[in-house]
Design goal:
Elements lengths: L7 E5 L17 H6 L5 E5 L1 H4 L9 E5 L4 E5 L8 H12 L7 E4 L11 E4 L5 E5 L2 H9 L5 E3 L6 H23 L3 H10 L1 H7 L1 H10 L8 H16 L5 H12 L8 H15 L6 H13 L3 H4 L18
Parallel strand pairs: 1-2, 1-5, 3-6, 5-8
Antiparallel strand pairs: 3-4, 6-7
Helix pairs in contact: 3-4, 7-8, 7-10, 8-9, 10-11, 11-12
Length: 317
């Protein structure tokens, strides 16, 4: 597989080392900058700076309820930047059509994706808030892969996010080239085992969307397909689902490899099921056998190579 196009990722500016936080510091994330950054380009955005707040600056926080949240000053509650952050988010969302993912700064009253402290009138705080800027971005771009830097410490969430970024980049490329029924069907076929690992039901629903494309509005079909496709990829893939996908792919080798090789491959998949080895082990063995016994259909499956292997993400799941 080739990854000629580098995905463009929106990111909170502090995470790439810019000193834009309220206390004048940065929150540089070494994995995002030094590892993922080798394969993607970033578009750093600090909404608080963008709306004219200085750095350092008096801190702000979320107050109210999950349904009615304001962003106000901690020391001076008369300072309310809610509308300014929301307006900036709306304007920015319209400019992010080429972005393939977004990484937000966790716990931030502007950028936190979830579990941001939300203060009631009594002064009590629950982790039920969403940053004002992040909330509008995610609502405006519901299919955009989004994560926050804290959650990316979880190997499964990290792998899922990166997989979604590259899948979305491929989808964006398809749309940019112009909608053609044949290409839409090919996209679906190449993502078969990737989607099936997340949800077989979603794969079936996607198939029904493409079952008869003669005389239909392809734009409408593509919009429905995108929502279903990206929604399916959000689901975590446990070992049982990966094992099922691996076994399906193994079936393409049943008449091509001998008994000893079959046993080796089967044992590798079973060792993964028993949590004795990471996913990369049976994946590498499958790729090895398919290099020796090429299959045009399997060679085109993105499930086996969803993103650059050098990221090493399947070594930890």
């Amino acid at each position: 597989m080739h990854y000629a196009e580098r995905p463009l990722i929106g990111i909170s500016s502090c995470l790439v080392g810019q000193k834009v936080r309220y206390d004048g510091t940065a929150k540089r994330n070494s994995w995002l900058v030094d590892q993922f950054g080798k394969h993607v380009d970033y578009r750093p955005i600090c909404p608080e700076m963008a709306i004219g707040m200085p750095t350092p600056r008096p801190p702000i926080r979320l107050v109210g309820t999950p349904d009615e949240t304001r962003v106000v000053g901690v020391d001076d509650p008369s300072v309310d930047v809610t509308e300014r952050l929301e307006d900036f988010a709306l304007n920015t969302a319209s400019e992010l059509q080429s972005v393939s993912g977004y990484v937000f700064m966790s716990k931030s009253p502007s950028c936190g994706m979830e579990r941001v402290k939300l203060y009631a009138a009594s002064g009590h705080a629950d982790k039920k808030g969403v940053g004002a800027y992040a909330r509008v971005i995610m609502a405006s771009l519901p299919n955009l892969p989004c994560e926050e830097e804290g959650r990316l410490n979880d190997p499964m969430l990290r792998e899922n996010f990166v997989s979604r970024v590259y899948a979305y980049r491929r989808w964006q490329s398809l749309r940019h080239q112009g909608l053609v029924a044949k290409e839409l069907i090919d996209f679906h076929a190449r993502h078969k085992y990737m989607v099936m690992a997340h949800s077989q039901a979603a794969y079936q629903r996607l198939g029904r969307l493409l079952s008869n494309l003669k005389g239909v509005d392809l734009e409408r079909v593509a919009s429905a397909y995108e929502a279903e496709f990206m929604g399916a990829l959000k689901r975590r893939v446990g070992r049982k689902r990966h094992v099922n996908a691996l076994q399906h792919i193994q079936g393409y080798l049943k008449t091509r490899i001998d008994g000893d090789d079959k046993r080796e491959l089967t044992e590798s998949i079973e060792a993964y099921r028993r949590e004795e080895v990471p996913l990369v082990v049976p994946m590498k063995l499958l790729r090895h056998y398919f290099r020796r016994n090429p299959d045009n259909y399997i060679d085109r499956q993105w499930y086996l190579d969803p993103y650059p292997e050098s990221l090493g993400l399947r070594n930890a799941i």
